[in-house]
């Protein structure tokens, strides 16, 4: 629990949707305070995922050894077949995320 340094009221956690960071705000006065560590960690996770998608070649859709799914709808071209494989799991991330690549337009996303 955090308290306002100006009026000692309870601070409430809020999200800044533009910068995707957390901050604490007082309801009684205009005092605000950065939330610190936890949101920095969240930002790192987002960047790691984007990086993974960047290094995926679009020609993986021609790789016959990869699994295919007919139940993934591409939100760019609406095609329903995509190849998928497990994201290279680094020590930083414990989540087993799958990377999908649309076989029609090559759009990549994490599922
Ligand atoms: Zn206050
Ligand atoms: Zn597509």
UniProtKB/TrEMBL annotation:
One of its GO terms (biological process) is transcription-coupled nucleotide-excision repair. InterPro entries: DNA-dir_RNA_pol-M_15_CS, Rpa12/Rpb9/Rpc10/TFS, Zn_ribbon_RPB9, Zn_ribbon_RPB9_C, Znf_TFIIS. Residues 2-56 form the DNA-directed RNA polymerase II subunit RPB9-like zinc ribbon domain. It comes from the Eukaryota. A zinc finger (C4-type) spans 4-29. It is found in: Nucleus, Nucleolus. One of its GO terms (cellular component) is RNA polymerase II, core complex. Transmembrane segments: none annotated. Keywords: DNA-directed RNA polymerase, Metal-binding, Nucleus, Transcription, Zinc, Zinc-finger. One of its GO terms (molecular function) is nucleic acid binding. Zn(2+) 2 binds at residues 74, 77, 102, 105. Zn(2+) 1 binds at residues 4, 7, 26, 29. PANTHER family: DNA-DIRECTED RNA POLYMERASE, DNA-DIRECTED RNA POLYMERASE II SUBUNIT RPB9. DNA-dependent RNA polymerase catalyzes the transcription of DNA into RNA using the four ribonucleoside triphosphates as substrates. Belongs to the archaeal rpoM/eukaryotic RPA12/RPB9/RPC11 RNA polymerase family. This is DNA-directed RNA polymerase subunit. It comes from Tribonema minus.
């Amino acid at each position: 629990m955090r308290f306002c340094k100006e009026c000692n009221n309870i601070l409430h956690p809020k999200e800044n949707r533009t910068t995707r960071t957390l901050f604490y705000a007082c309801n009684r006065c205009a005092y605000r305070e950065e939330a610190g560590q936890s949101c920095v960690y969240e930002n790192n996770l987002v960047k790691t995922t984007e990086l993974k998608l960047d290094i995926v070649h679009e020609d993986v859709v021609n790789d016959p050894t990869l699994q295919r799914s007919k139940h993934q709808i591409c939100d760019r071209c609406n095609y329903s077949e995509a190849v998928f494989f497990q994201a290279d799991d680094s020590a930083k991330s414990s989540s087993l995320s799958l990377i999908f690549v649309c076989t029609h337009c090559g759009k990549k996303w994490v599922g």
